[in-house]
Amino acid sequence: MRLLVGTLAGAQSVFAVQGDMAVNLTDAVPDIGTDLAALTAAPDLMARAEEAAAGEKMVNVADITPALPVTAPPTIICLGLNYTDHIKEGGYEIPDYPALFMRGRQSIMAAGQPMVRPTCSERLDYEAELMVIIGKGGRHISEADALDHVFGYTVFNDGSVRDYQRKTHQWTPGKNFDQTGAIGPYVVTPNEVPEGASGLKIESRVGSEILQSSNTGNMIWSAASAISIISEYSTLQPGDHIALGTPPGVGHAKKPNPRWLRPGEVVEVEIEGIGICASPIVDEAETMQKAAM
């Protein structure tokens, strides 16, 4: 199933998408609620959602404004250094254990919403990533069983403020500026993509300019491996988000000059079979001026 959380006529709902049309699952099954939190935590609701998706009353997807798939994810865990060529372009050694960091709620936003370049830096970079949304939680999950814990897959742009990322050995500042991590708009259930969402083309671009182009099959740590590793130290919960790292081609590594995102541009991240996450770039100073008027 292809799911979209968004607003229509002022109300937020969960929709089942079929081509250019969608069924309002929240109207059909109120227990589903207004985001994917209930569906991730209650597998029995999925059967009711699938029945409702066969309903005849449909709306145009173009009329729906995307919202975050899960309004308040319990935890947002991100892998860095998960594609060999990206590791090399950043000047790192290939690690034996994934680089892990966390994002806060203020740092993420829905696909389509502006990605904000902060006033303190012009070095806003893009990172195309596959993201897992956890369904069944657990601890000490084996790699063999890990994909049973996946609710769905979505698209993530891990917008990074590079000079702040490099200020310390910990990447937290550069990865947590407000409104720099775009998620969505679609979440696809595992039956919609190859096992582990492997073997899918992943790309970022601005207009006709291709910034990154790779394949999720090139990840060092697969979705299953990442889930297993993370669950060694943390109990995963329904609705947790895990971002699986970016391929080569990021802006800071471009030669001869870095390629930073600029206000007025629209950056797109696309993963084959999942969708396109598009974000207009805006300058924080301009948004502050508008807010003050």
UniProtKB/TrEMBL annotation:
Domain Fumarylacetoacetase-like C-terminal: 75-281
Transmembrane segments: none
Keywords: Metal-binding
InterPro entries: FAH, Fumarylacetoacetase-like_C, Fumarylacetoacetase_C_sf
Gene3D superfamilies found in the cross-reference section: Fumarylacetoacetase-like, C-terminal domain (3.90.850.10)
A GO biological-process term: carboxylic acid metabolic process
MF annotations from Gene Ontology: isomerase activity; metal ion binding
Family, per entry: Belongs to the FAH family.
Record-given protein name: 2-keto-4-pentenoate hydratase/2-oxohepta-3-ene-1,7-dioic acid hydratase in catechol pathway
Species whose genome carries this gene: Primorskyibacter sedentarius
